[in-house]
C-alpha cells in the first residue's frame, strides 16, 4: 500500500502547504441555541463530523459582530464575537476542540472596509471634514457648488454608486455595500490596529488567516478622480491601477509577515486576490502573505485541456514564489460546482457561473442534477489529488446543489438589493446545511433557519449519506483519509492519455486519471484505490476520476 512519504517528517511550520481546508460559513453551519442562525456552539457540536472528514484546517468566515449587510463581511468589531454566535470564551473553546481533533483554525480578516457601525465610522460621521476620524476612511468633497454630486461616477461591486453622501457636502467611498466604508490604508492608525487584530487572534491560538479582498487595500486617489470609464480602460496587471493590485499593498503584508513570524509555528495567511496570474506570486511570497487563492479551476470549463493547463500554470506560479498553490471549486461567493457542472455550456462565457439560471429561479436552462453531481464528484477527486492545498466549502461534501428558488423576501445578499432584476446574489450557496431529514430545519437547529431550505434537502442530509457507502459524503471521507495517508512531495508527472483523459502521477506512485468525456475510456493499469462513480470492468467511465496505485 502506498503511504505518506517525504512529507511525514516536515516540521509544523509547513503544515499549510498541502492542507485540506474546510470553509465554514458559521451562520449556516449548525445552530445550537435555536435562533435560526448558526453559531460557535453549533460548530463545536459537530467536531466529530469535521474529524471524520480528516481535515487539516477549518477556515471560519466572519463571526464578528455585524449587522449582516454583507453576510458578516461588514465587521463592527474585529476583536470580538457576534453575540448571536457566542462569546470569546466560545471561540477559545472551539479552537481548543479543533486542536484536540488535530484540526487547525484559520479566520477571515476583512481589512478593505469596516462596517458602518464600527466605532471608527461612527466617529467619522460625528466629526468634521478634515478631522483625524475621517482620515481613517476615504472621504472626499462632492462636486458642484454644494457638493451634491458624487466625487466620481464609480459603480460599486454590488451595483449602484460607490460613493455615499454624509450630509455635509462630503462623500465616502464604499467599493462594496453602502454599509462597508473603505478604509484608508495610508493611515498609520489603521495599519497599527490591524497588526493588533492579527496578534489578538494569534494569541488566542488561531493558526492562520484568510485575507478578504487582499488586492484592494492600497489605493492612490489623486485630487482629480478618474471616471468609471477611465478606470475601466486602465490595465489592471501593471501595479498602476488606482484601486486594485497596487505594488504598495505588499508593504502592508510585509508588516503583517513580521507578526506572523513572531509566532511558532509562524501564522499562515492566504490572499483572496482576484489579480492577473503573473501578479499572484507576490501575494504568495514568504515575505508577504505566503499563499494566495487560485480561482482558475473554479472558472475553467469542464474540459481536459482546460484543467491540465490550469494545473500546469498554477504549479509554475507557485514555484515562482516558493509557495504551494490552492485549489478551489466552490466557496460562499459562487454557484456551487455541482450545479455549475449540470448546466449546459452557455453561448456567452460570462454566463458560465450559472447566473442566468439563478435569475430564472432555477428553471432555465434546465439543470441536469445527476450530471452535475457526477462531474462534481470527479472534479473534487481530481483536486484532492493535486499538489498544494485544497479549499473545500461546507456542503460540497454532500454534493449540495445551489438553491435557486429563494423568495425575494428571504434574500439577504446586498447584490440582490442593489441590482433589482439583474442579479439575485449569493444566498443560494449559503443556505443552512441539512443534517437530518426533518423540518423545521433538517437538523440545523430547532427553529426555522435564517434562509429557507428546499424540500430536496431531505434527500441529501448527512444522516442519509453517512451510512451509504456510495454517497458523496462517503466519497469525501474516504478521499480525505486516503489523501492524508498518500500525501507526498508537491510534484506531479503527466502521463500519456486519451484526449479526453487527464492522467498524472505523484512522486510516491499515487496515480490519478480523470475522464472528462461523455464516453468511457480505458482504465489505466494498476489497482484502483477510489473512484468517483461505479466502475465496470476495465473501463474508466464517462466523467469519472480514479485514484490508483501501481500493482
Ligand atoms: C470577498 C468576500 C465576499 C464579500 C466581499 C466584500 O470577496 O468573499 O463574500 O462580499 O469580499 O467583503
Automatic annotation (TrEMBL):
Q: Which InterPro entries match?
A: GH (IPR017853), GH13_cat_dom (IPR006047), O16G_dom_2 (IPR045857)
Entry keyword set: Glycoprotein
Query: Can you say what this protein is called?
Result: Alpha-amylase
Against SMART domains, the record matches this protein to: Aamy
Q: Which GO terms describe its molecular function?
A: alpha-amylase activity
Could you name the domain of life of the organism this protein comes from?
Answer: Bacteria
* Species this chain originates from: Mycetocola zhujimingii
The entry assigns this protein to a family as follows: Belongs to the glycosyl hydrolase 13 family.
According to its UniProt record, what is one Pfam family this protein matches? Alpha-amylase
Return one Gene Ontology term, BP aspect. Answer: oligosaccharide catabolic process
Question: Glycosyl hydrolase family 13 catalytic domain: from which residue to which, for each copy?
Answer: 23-430
Amino acid at each position: 500500500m502506498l503511504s505518506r512519504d517525504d512529507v511525514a517528517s516536515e516540521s509544523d511550520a509547513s503544515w499549510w502547504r498541502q492542507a485540506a481546508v474546510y470553509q465554514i460559513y458559521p451562520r449556516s453551519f449548525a445552530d445550537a441555541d435555536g435562533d435560526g442562525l448558526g453559531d460557535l456552539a453549533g460548530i463545536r457540536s459537530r467536531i466529530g463530523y469535521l474529524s471524520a472528514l480528516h481535515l487539516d484546517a477549518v477556515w471560519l468566515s466572519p463571526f464578528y459582530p455585524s449587522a449582516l449587510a454583507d453576510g458578516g463581511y461588514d465587521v463592527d468589531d474585529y476583536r470580538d464575537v457576534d453575540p448571536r454566535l457566542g462569546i470569546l470564551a466560545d471561540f477559545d473553546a472551539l479552537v481548543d476542540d479543533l486542536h484536540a481533533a488535530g484540526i487547525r483554525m484559520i479566520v477571515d480578516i476583512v481589512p478593505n472596509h469596516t462596517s458602518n457601525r464600527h466605532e471608527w465610522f461612527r466617529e467619522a460621521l460625528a466629526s468634521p471634514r478634515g478631522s483625524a476620524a475621517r482620515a481613517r476612511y476615504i472621504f472626499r468633497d462632492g462636486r458642484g457648488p454644494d457638493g451634491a454630486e458624487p466625487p466620481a461616477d464609480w459603480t460599486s461591486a454590488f451595483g449602484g454608486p460607490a460613493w455615499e453622501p454624509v450630509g455635509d457636502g462630503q462623500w465616502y467611498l464604499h467599493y462594496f455595500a453602502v454599509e462597508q466604508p473603505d478604509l484608508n490604508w495610508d493611515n498609520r492608525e489603521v495599519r497599527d490596529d490591524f497588526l493588533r487584530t492579527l496578534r489578538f487572534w494569534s494569541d488566542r491560538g488561531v493558526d492562520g488567516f484568510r485575507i478578504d479582498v487582499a488586492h484592494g487595500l492600497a489605493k492612490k486617489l489623486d485630487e482629480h478622480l478618474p471616471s468609471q470609464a477611465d478606470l475601466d480602460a486602465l490595465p489592471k496587471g501593471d501595479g498602476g491601477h488606482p484601486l486594485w493590485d497596487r505594488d504598495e499593498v505588499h508593504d502592508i503584508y510585509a508588516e503583517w509577515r513580521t507578526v506572523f513570524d513572531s509566532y511558532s509555528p509562524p501564522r499562515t495567511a492566504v490572499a483572496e486576490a482576484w489579480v492577473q496570474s503573473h501578479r499572484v506570486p507576490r501575494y504568495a511570497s514568504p515575505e508577504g502573505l505566503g499563499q494566495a487563492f487560485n480561482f482558475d479551476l473554479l472558472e475553467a470549463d469542464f474540459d481536459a485541456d482546460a484543467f491540465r493547463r490550469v494545473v500546469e500554470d498554477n504549479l509554475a506560479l507557485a514555484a515562482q514564489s516558493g509557495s504551494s498553490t490552492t485549489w478551489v471549486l466552490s466557496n460562499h461567493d459562487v454557484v456551487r460546482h455541482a450545479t455549475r457542472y449540470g448546466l449546459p455550456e452557455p453561448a456567452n462565457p460570462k454566463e458560465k457561473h450559472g447566473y442566468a439560471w439563478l435569475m430564472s429561479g432555477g428553471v432555465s436552462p434546465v439543470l441536469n442534477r445527476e450530471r452535475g453531481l457526477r462531474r462534481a464528484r470527479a472534479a473534487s477527486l481530481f483536486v484532492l489529488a493535486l499538489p498544494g492545498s485544497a479549499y473545500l466549502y461546507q456542503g460540497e461534501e454532500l454534493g449540495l446543489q445551489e438553491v435557486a428558488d429563494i423568495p425575494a423576501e428571504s434574500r439577504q445578499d446586498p447584490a440582490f438589493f442593489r441590482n433589482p432584476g439583474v442579479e439575485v446574489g449569493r444566498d443560494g450557496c449559503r443556505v443552512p446545511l441539512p443534517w437530518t431529514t426533518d423540518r423545521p430545519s433538517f437538523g440545523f437547529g430547532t427553529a426555522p433557519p435564517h434562509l429557507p431550505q428546499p424540500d430536496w434537502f431531505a434527500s441529501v442530509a448527512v444522516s442519509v449519506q453517512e451510512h451509504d457507502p456510495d454517497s458523496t459524503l462517503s466519497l469525501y471521507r474516504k478521499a480525505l483519509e486516503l489523501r492524508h495517508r498518500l500525501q507526498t512531495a508537491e510534484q506531479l508527472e503527466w502521463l500519456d492519455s486519451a484526449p479526453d483523459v487527464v492522467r498524472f502521477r505523484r512522486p510516491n506512485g499515487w496515480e490519478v486519471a480523470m475522464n472528462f468525456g461523455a464516453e468511457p475510456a480505458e482504465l489505466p493499469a494498476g489497482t484502483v484505490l477510489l473512484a468517483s462513480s461505479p466502475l465496470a470492468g476495465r473501463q474508466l467511465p464517462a466523467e469519472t476520476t480514479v485514484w490508483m496505485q501501481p500493482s
